[in-house]
Design brief:
The structure holds 2 protein chains of 2 kinds. Chain A is an all-alpha fold. Chain A is built from 15 helices and no strands. The longest helix of chain A has 31 residues. In chain B, α2 packs parallel to α4 and α10 packs parallel to α13. Chain B has a single domain, classed as ABC transporter involved in vitamin B12 uptake, BtuC. The chains are: A mainly alpha, B mainly alpha.
Chain lengths: 383, 306
Amino acid sequence: MSTPRNWHASAEALLLPVMALAAALLLFGVFCWFGGRSPLEVWSILLRGAFGDAFSWQNTLQRASPLMLTALAVALPAQTGLTVIGGEGALALGALGCAALPYIMKVPGGVPGSAMVLGSGALLAALWVALAGVLRQWRRVNETISSLLLGYIAIALFKHFVEGPMRDPASLNKPSTRPLDASLQIGAIAPDSFLGDVHWGLVIGIAACVLFGAWLSFTAQGFSLRVVGGNARAARLVGLATDRLVVLACALGGACAGLAGAIEVAAVQTSANASVIAGMGYTGILVSFVARHNPWAIPPVAILFGGFAAAGSLLQRRLGLPDASVLVLQGFAFVCILGAEALRGRLVPLLAARPAFGVIQGKPAKPAQAVAAAEAVVDKAAA
Amino acid sequence: MNPDAWMTLLFAIVGGAVRVGTPFLFVSLGECLTEKSGRINLGLEGVLVLAAMAGFAGSYLTGVWWLGVLLAGFSGALLALLHGVLCSLPRVSDIATGIALMLLGTGLAFYLGKPLIQPQAAQIPSLPLGWWSASSQVQSALAINALFPLGVLLAALLHWGFANTRPGLVVRMAGDSSDAARALGYSVNGVRIAATTAGGFIAGMGGASLSLYYPGSWNEGLSSGQGLIAVALVIFARWRPWRCLGAALLFGGAGAIGPALQSVGISGGYYLFSAVPYALTLAILIATSSPRGSLRGAPAELGVSR
């Protein structure tokens, strides 16, 4: 099956995001130039701050690991055609659930105990996000709006419990829950190597992306999930339990974001406090869109945006740019990535300046439709 | 609590309904106009934050409050224009674009607004509608944002315009049947871009009301989801401008419960009360959506309830 169309599609899958990100960096450079900074300097600091030396790599990887999980929180529901963006709230609930478990029961020390606190965070967040899926399937409530509203409510609950009933009296300036027992905390992978204090969250994040990618590609259940996203009516006609699959995808996505929050508590903050809510849920949305909701593409994209976030503090120190400059760069990247969608299916013909095989109608974001349309084109050409 | 405290609480909530509800009113009217043309703009959250910053900057730099409001409107229109143009490209979803603009608008506002966190700017004046009363509580509850009557006027104008003017009918046609609009020779994308941009201008004025009236200063926590709540309000209001007014007041009242309780000395559960508007929005979304899919009064081309 090495038709020109296939070759075009895979070349585009790589070229389009790269071009979009380049355009975003260009825009960001021009934006900083208006503020009186040299774009060249901005780009070089971005690069050095993200990937310049061992220290910046450590910083980058630390920031990338929660992004992988919050991106999965968008990517998994997206397989069924849902746009769920409540990752930030799910992350907060995950952190809360992780810190709360020792309050309500005796947790054993060591790895089983760590697994239990992480699991409790993931479970709480999974139930929360599953609610958005339930509302979507049974009441047709728009899941984008409901998941974001649920997210705001989750953040309010988090603040209520952290600053109220669960507050550690010893935390004076920064309200926090009681710190996790040292035996429950998650440590560095290899503290004496070049990885420094990069913790096990990175391994968990990459493993989750790889496993969920494999689940979607190689299992019947993963495939049926994508069928629901491609054409819900067809899925129902062939007897798939559409409602259950949608809720499952939402719950798994929520579990991932919750796990990210739990890991932030167990590996970085040691207790649940306001530092956990740092916008990683929102950045995860962008990461998932750049990766086109493909779990296998998420780790490299997360590392890239983790790198930009890491470079943010260097931009702040060296050039005196506000800390929100990373948000601006993310915004530009998001706009460029969406704009690049318009070029899909036209890019290679445009670059090679030769006529296309045929124009594919419909939305390639939905794999089933795109494959059907592509096959129709190929069949027609063969006949 | 004694009767006096109850009265204080009641007036604080009634006054708060207008004070907190004004931004909701403008954003929901802006979204109503956008959605009538057949597109949903979730990016109004970003528009609101960016416009709040721009309005504050304009008022701070010129010392004239209405120049700030105008600047807020124009900055909102600019961001909404970007939304309109992006969504007109093939295969670009309006939901995804809205999320992108939420991030971009917030990012730009935080970046450009960094130097504005400390200073004071000329505020939007308040209209003393409580002049007849001797009670200071009544007076402070009825001292309303000068933008609020403008918002009411705008609701009336939109209501009349959608039914009686050519542009109003064209916008509705683009929202109900793009084929019909095309058949009559109108550019559907053009109409939608225009409606989205105008909607952004209106929503932007709501942003100015945040930074120039209540809370009345610029900071990064100024809006957390008000723009998004307003989007949901439009569904509740069944895409009718008049009902947007009622919905905005209802939500303003809900949002005022937390601060009102604080003003009479009840501060426990502050965060829980701050979540009331979100919970109320969700409850209303659930109650007004139907399992069958189609929402009564929804523009037919709209993707809210696919």
